[in-house]
Design brief:
450 residues; alpha/beta; Rossmann fold; N-(1-d-carboxylethyl)-l-norvaline Dehydrogenase, domain 2; 3 domains; six-stranded parallel sheet; 17 helices; 43% helix; elongated; binds uridine-5'-diphosphate-xylopyranose; UDP-Glc/GDP-Man_DH_N; NAD; EC 1.1.1.22; NAD(P)-bd_dom_sf; UDP-glucose 6-dehydrogenase activity
């Protein structure tokens, strides 16, 4: 099929590459000329495993192309994806300026019937709004005879496994009551449904809500686990044992019950705020989800609060090693990352941060620039040089195997605060380290060599 994609951000680009890879002819447009020029040379603006090779292959095969010309894209694609950004407004609601702007532009170029597929995460009711805006524009331009169909088709991809999530989706939500549109989308996604039918059809409001509901459910699991972890600490219980115990119940399962120093990223916090806003505005506030968000705000500060407790005389002049800047492993994304709450709190107190992350170092530099109280270290172990304590914020694989004796030797206060529960407390205690995880029992450090 001929498909166009407006917006070459995370969602649009990965979707476009995946569609081209199964044989569709895909044209992507973006207003960012530099980005398009780079994509034409197969240089993606984001790092995702498999993405660069996929773009390269499909560019060469002629199934994928990039342009800044909206008119070309409207002529090319019988199906037109809208995957432009929905940045949060000041009140947390999703700003639909780009989505509606692109809709108007598409309608202005339309010379034949078109189906618009909304991929961006948008508030409930947006598909109807998009349809109304497109209709209005078509009528205004004397093209009232043209049909415009709008389908809501939310994306569930995760950073770091976006390509895989896109080519092997768990489910494909198609929000449209129109039989012809449903058939079009079924044909488009047939190559992704070979092992089993993954299409779930529904009305577009339900499709829009499904995306938010999925993120709300997952975020709720995390915040609940984080609260239980904090309680376990008070009670002298071990949240890791509790996690294994409850995860074995198939009704609960093991996914998304890892306690830690809070969730971050570009989706969960933003989508939660948007859904809370929608709910309030509709007169049906979501009390539970409000708490999920509040718990996460405070959870991101837990490593800092632990430090504060251990240094009652204050953190001024302290040097804190930090492992992990990205909001999760396998990405350089630091949006809403717990590491940022920690660093900013430490800086306010006058401490210095010695940080390492396998991928997010330049992102950190871009965000915070050069400052005396931030030292970006070339290796994980360089952070330990003259450091008083170590805090871990991201569970990168490269942090899993550690020489605890070296940590005990290097860290002046022999203190490790682990926001991701990576280690066995007994082992750190045996090496003479004081180890504080999230919801883990405290084991008294054994006196090690001085
Ligand atoms: C998420 C959703 O998974 C995806 O379906 C949606 O489309 C976009 O938002 P992503 O933001 O890439 O994807 O991250 P994800 O892997 O889901 O992790 C989100 C956050 O939750 C991370 O900060 C992670 O550290 C945290 N997390 C996850 C926990 O703290 N505990 C867990 O058990 C799982």
């Amino acid at each position: 099929m001929d498909v166009s994609v407006f917006g070459t951000g995370y969602v649009g680009l990965v979707q476009a590459a995946a569609l081209a890879d199964v044989g569709h002819r895909v044209l992507c447009v973006d207003i960012d000329e530099l980005k398009i020029q780079q994509l034409q040379r197969a240089v993606p603006p984001i790092q995702e495993p498999g993405l660069s090779a996929m773009i390269d292959d499909n560019l060469r095969e002629g199934r994928l192309s990039f342009s800044t010309q909206a008119s070309d894209a409207v002529i090319h694609g019988q199906l037109i994806f809208i995957a432009v950004g929905t940045p949060p407004d000041e009140d947390g609601s999703a700003d639909l300026r780009h989505v509606l702007g692109v809709t108007r532009e598409i309608a202005s170029h339309m010379q034949a019937d078109r189906t618009l597929v909304i991929k961006s995460t948008v508030p409930v009711g947006t598909a109807s709004q998009v349809e109304a805006v497109a209709r209005d524009e078509l009528d205004r331009l004397g093209k009232g005879q043209l049909a415009v169909r709008v389908v809501s088709n939310p994306e569930f991809l995760k950073e770091g496994s976006a390509v895989n999530d896109c080519i092997r989706p768990d489910r494909i939500i198609v929000g449209s009551d129109d039989e012809q549109t449903r058939a079009q989308l079924a044909e488009l996604y047939a190559p992704f449904c070979r092992s089993r039918d993954k299409l779930i059809f529904m009305d577009n409001r339900s499709a829009e809500l499904t995306k938010y509901a999925a993120n709300a459910m997952l975020a709720t699991r995390i915040s609940l686990m984080n609260e239980l972890a904090n309680l376990a600490e008070q009670l002298g219980a071990d949240i890791e044992a509790v996690r294994r115990g409850i995860g074995s119940d198939p009704r609960i399962g093991y996914h998304f019950i890892y306690p830690g120093c809070g969730f971050g990223g570009s989706c969960f916090p933003k989508d939660l705020r948007a859904l809370l806003h929608t709910a309030r505005a509709s007169g049906q506030p979501l009390r539970l989800l409000q708490s999920v968000q509040e718990v996460n705000e405070t959870q991101r500060l837990v490593p800092f609060q632990k430090l504060q407790k251990l240094y009652p005389e204050g953190l001024a002049g302290k040097s804190i090693a930090l492992w992990g800047l990205a909001f999760k492993p396998n990405t350089d994304d630091m949006r809403e990352a717990p590491s940022r709450c920690l660093m900013e709190a430490l800086w306010r107190e006058g401490a210095t941060v010695r940080a390492f992350d396998p991928e997010a170092m330049s992102e950190c530099r871009r965000l915070y620039g050069y400052r005396d109280d931030l030292v970006l270290c070339a290796t994980r172990d360089d952070t330990l040089q003259d450091a008083d304590a170590l805090v871990i914020c991201t569970e990168w694989k490269a942090f899993r195997v550690v020489d605890f004796a070296l940590l005990a030797h290097k860290l002046r206060d022999r203190l490790v605060i682990d926001g991701r529960n990576l280690y066995n407390p007994q082992q750190l205690a045996a090496a003479g380290l004081r180890y504080l995880g999230i919801g883990l029992p405290q084991v008294a450090p054994q006196a090690g060599p001085q």
